[in-house]
Amino acid sequence: MSSTQPRRRGGNRYRRPRKDPVRILAFEALRAVDERDAYANLVLPPLLRKAREKDPAHGGLDARDAALVTELVYGTLRRQGTYDAIIAECVDRPLREVDPPVLDVLSLGAHQLLGTRIPQHAAVSATVELARVVLGDGRAKFVNAVLRRITADDLDGWLDRIAPPYDKDPEEHLALRHAHPRWVVSALWDALGTGRGGITALLEADNERPEVTLVARPGRATTEELTTEDTAPGRWSPYAVRLAEGGEPGALDAVREGRAGVQDEGSQLVALALANAPLEGADARWLDSCAGPGGKAALLGALAAERGAALLASEKQPHRARLVARALEGNPGPWAVVAADGTRPAWAPGSFDRVLVDVPCTGLGALRRRPEARWRRRPEDVAGFAPLQRGLLRQALESARVGGVVAYVTCSPHLAETRAVVDDVLRGLEKEGTTAAEPVDARPLLPGVPELGEGPDIQLWPHLHGTDAMYLALLRRTA
User: Fold this and answer.
1) Is 294 annotated to bind ligand?
2) pLDDT tens track for 24-33
3) Nearest to 228 by CA among 210, 241, 209, 213
4) Is the pTM of this model over 0.70?
5) Which of 128, 139, 163, 369 has the most crowded CB, counting CB atoms within 10 A?
């Protein structure tokens, strides 16, 4: 009998690997995150759209498949450090000597075995088939052997093996059990302090999939217009609507038309606090000095328009400035966007009544949305942002008129990016004796929001408020 199929020794016919579009797509997303330093929340949606447009007979995905891809990618990235520690116990070489594509396949398999309800045999079989497709038969055997070792225990059992007891080393214990780098655990614990829900609750919240929250831009859309059977009212912002899991923002006319948008409720709250801060005198000119990609600018622009005020949105990077302009398009009030460096203002000092400066930061407050960021960031990144954060806040204060209000905002709770920046800038200005400013208690500006701390600044938390960990300090220029 003749055949074009190759044969193995012993007469076994070679079987081609089965191509599983779900796991292949998940692998491609992980490789993009690793190779290009991309973010999964930017890489995955276009991959899913392209796959869902295909004929199912030729690798197209249905909604259930797309949900599984999303879980595999985000779950693997979220617990990457913990899975690495487990895999390291199951290989015969240092983990750094395992090729990155092989490690991505192993991590996908580890997540299926330890972090999902997929049966063990199915998880191993599917991952080995993936390895055959993307790595080749030789390395697939290595993947199979490692996964078999991982099946020796469940996640809790592995954590008991690799994590030190809490009383011996609490930070490392929490780091491995809740999949955060140790330095991040330490920084979050310092910022949270005692009480306020506890560090364990915060780390657990960081590992939950965040809700998608919409904002109805005032004067352009209403929350009633966004309300469907798949939505619920926001918790704190009067302009917020929460989507049910699996809800599609683009299915709503207001979102497609730019009258509403996707915006975390914490992001809405800090913009609202600035807009509602008491002000004496003129209230005609507002500035967003680090406006990209434009979510806060769009909300501020709509609020300014209701009061007859004009918004200037500034963004250093031209491509991000274009995103800001797109977000503001259709705003009923006067607005303008400039591509300018907030540390070298393109406007005269003392020009604005209200100023928002949402500074670049480590993003440790948005780990729910960008799970890979926790493994990508390094402690030295905090110091790297420090000069820019101080320079932007200083120029924001000089851009405000005497009596005007500045909102210093970061999406990081790290004390070195929040209170330390504000304190340093205020001390520096006091020594120079030129520009001067004083803190404004921001807490009364967010009525109904609990657990806002001792003030005058505000730190929001995922486990307490269901938002990103946004920080806000309000400052009034006094001289």
Assistant:
1) yes
2) 999 999 999 9
3) 241
4) yes
5) 128
